[in-house]
Design goal:
about 15% strand, globular, single chain
């Protein structure tokens, strides 16, 4: 199986490069991770007018999904397109429906999975405070200890406050 993974930022790519080989057998499966420079919005007519060089994930997603559907439509080639992004301030059910509708309008339709972080991907890092402390020994204990797992609290800002002077 081959996995094409789209993620909204470079830090997500860095984390996935470490995590994915721990999740799948890289002797049996392959993967590519494509980072973008932000999440953006799904175009209403599914035709992006934004500059592809800006690499904004959702702005380009209709073209990307359609392209993968055409490129990898060979039934003998086993692959999955995985899109990983933050929910941010969107309604989960509406956002999920928009993403699924986008794939449904493609022909041929690539096998696509969406992974939506309810708060932000940085919550993964804050879920392991010992790892944060190991990576950033001078991280502010009080800020780290004020985090409640799975809370909606602006996780990237909290992480920045903990590890960088001035946030």
């Amino acid at each position: 199986m081959h996995f094409e993974i789209l993620v909204e930022d470079i830090s997500g790519k860095t984390a996935l490069e470490i995590l994915i080989p721990k999740i799948i057998s890289t002797e049996q499966h392959t993967f590519n991770i494509h980072p973008y420079k932000g999440i953006g919005r799904i175009p209403t007519d599914l035709k992006s007018a934004s500059d592809p060089k800006k690499r904004i994930l959702l702005d380009q997603l209709p073209k990307i999904v359609q392209g993968w559907g055409k490129t990898l439509s060979d039934p003998d080639y086993s692959f999955v397109l995985i899109v990983i992004c933050d929910l941010d301030n969107r309604c989960l059910s509406t956002f999920r429906r928009e993403l699924l509708d986008l794939v449904d309008k493609c022909s041929p339709k690539p096998k696509t999975q969406f992974c939506i972080a309810i708060e932000e991907g940085e919550a993964w890092f804050l879920g392991d405070l010992a790892a944060v402390k190991a990576a950033y020994p001078k991280a502010k204990e009080a800020v780290l200890n004020s985090y409640t797992n799975d809370s909606i609290c602006g996780t990237w800002e909290k992480l920045a406050d903990a590890v960088f002077s001035g946030g």
